[in-house]
Design brief:
With about 425 residues, the protein is an alpha/beta fold. It has three domains: about 160 residues, Rossmann fold; about 160 residues, 2-Layer Sandwich (Dihydrodipicolinate Reductase, domain 2); about 80 residues, ACT domain (Alpha-Beta Plaits). Helices cover about 35% and strands about 25% of the residues. The strands form two sheets. Strands 7, 8, 9, 10, 11, 12, 13, 14, 15, 16 and 17 form an eleven-stranded mixed beta sheet that branches. It has a six-stranded parallel beta sheet with strand order 3-2-1-4-5-6, sandwiched between helices.
Length: about 425
């Protein structure tokens, strides 16, 4: 019997928003997906925490014992869509040790333990595919791993969290305060009841770790990612960005430094309206890549939701099933470069600093001297009257985070500075 004559038996861990869509579509489209894979794909078991009715799914498929699935010698492929780190990590490792390939959508697991999982899978000659872990339906993992394997990525920037992009879009377009839009996003289901993971950048940081590891062939974990969220962004910040023909986005940024280190970070950025990422609205995601030979590339689409994420999972199931039928495996991740992670203090960018100062002569000169003393060059200064004070909006040339922090610390010690309202990084137009 040739490998293609033997069906690929699939076990699933989890049946929530994404998992239920995967199961439904896998059963509805079995014939089509099997034809594409070149082998019959059979969904055999689904592990859930609690047995309940799932419309369109046979109750006989379900079990509350996930280990019965990962230890079943008849199951070839495990689809992990349960989320979280434990017990997902233990179950995935058990499945790998039992010679099963893995398809997962679990960004938190991969951002913390991806290297261990890849090592275990490759030692057993098994696949681990995870297209759905970053940016939902957008193909980005496989292009980085396969399509750009012959090129050298120098930088990537991504809008990889739909909740924050929705909030910032509404603030920009409708002149609404952060708290007001957040409540709307919660009502619409874009934001969780506890939105911390989204608005404080934890979700984006996990995705940044995954993307940067792939792009730069280095093990990167979520702990390596510098992180700031959007909860401190005000409507005034948004208005200033508008006046400069910029928009504010929460970006995941990873780039090679001149010292051949990786700078990887998540934080709000004022980005020039001419940049393709500036036009990404609402809950959509996009990843912008710069490569030596390919030049600039952008991947755009729906970054979350049951059906878009299920699309990515199903694509991985078809690919891995094809490999199982042919007794082969796909492209492996590599960490041969083993680059160091650059401390955030050495990362260079442009900054906008908004501060309130006493409205009297000599203040601007004193402020400029503080910047010069820390080696930070000023690009532009705008001054606006504000009651007894004046507001200065200063945009710098490129400087390190360390230099900027030292500048801010020095400004805070000046009696003539009454308030530092905001400090936001600035990205220019695409070259």
């Amino acid at each position: 019997m040739s490998p293609a004559d033997k069906p690929v038996r699939v076990g699933m861990l989890g049946c929530g928003v994404v998992g239920s869509q995967v199961a439904r579509l896998l059963l509805e489209d079995t014939a089509e997906l099997s034809t594409r894979a070149g082998v019959k794909i059979e969904l055999t078991r689904i592990a859930v925490r609690t047995i309940k009715d799932h419309p369109g799914l046979n109750p006989a498929l379900f079990t509350t014992d996930p280990f019965s699935i990962v230890n079943d010698p008849e199951i070839d492929l495990i689809v992990e869509v349960m989320g979280g780190i434990e017990p997902a990590r233990e179950l995935t490792l058990t499945a790998i040790n039992n010679r099963k390939s893995i398809v997962t959508a679990n960004k938190a697991l991969l951002a913390s333990h991806g290297a261990d999982l890849f090592t275990a899978a490759y030692a057993k000659g098994e696949d681990i595919y995870y297209e759905a872990s970053v940016a939902g339906a957008i193909p980005i993992i496989r292009p980085l791993r396969d399509s750009l394997a012959g090129d050298f990525v120098t930088r990537l920037m991504g809008i990889v969290n739909g909740t924050t992009n929705y909030i910032l879009t509404k603030m920009h377009e409708d002149n609404r305060e952060f708290a007001d839009v957040l409540k709307e996003a919660q009502k619409l289901g874009y934001a969780e009841a506890d939105p911390t993971a989204d608005i404080e950048g934890f979700d984006a940081a996990a995705k940044a770790a995954i993307l940067s590891g792939l792009a730069f062939h280095t093990r990167v974990t979520v702990d390596d990612v510098y992180r700031e969220g959007i909860s401190k962004i005000t409507l005034e910040d948004v208005s200033i960005a508008k006046s400069m023909d910029h928009v504010i986005k929460l970006l995941a940024i990873a780039e090679l430094t001149p010292d051949d280190e990786i700078s990887v970070r998540v934080h709000p950025v004022m980005i020039d309206k001419s940049h393709p990422l500036a036009s990404v609205r609402d809950a959509f995601n996009a990843v912008f890549i710069e490569a030596e030979s390919a030049g600039p590339l952008m991947f755009y689409g729906r970054g979350a939701g049951g059906q878009p994420t299920a699309s990515a999972v199903l694509g991985d199931i078809v690919a891995v099933s094809r490999h199982i039928a042919l007794n082969s495996i796909g492209q492996r991740e590599t960490d041969y470069a083993d680059r160091d992670i650059a401390p955030i203090e050495r990362t260079k960018t442009k900054f906008l600093i908004r501060l309130e100062v006493e409205d009297k002569s000599g203040v601007l000169a004193a402020i400029a001297k503080v910047f010069a003393d820390q080696g930070v060059s000023i690009q532009t200064v705008d001054q606006n009257g504000r009651h007894d004070d004046a507001e200065l909006i200063i945009v710098t040339h490129r400087a390190t985070e360390g230099e900027l922090k030292a500048t801010v610390d020095a400004l805070q010690k000046m009696s003539m500075v009454t308030k530092i309202s905001s400090v936001i990084r600035v990205e220019g137009a695409i070259s």
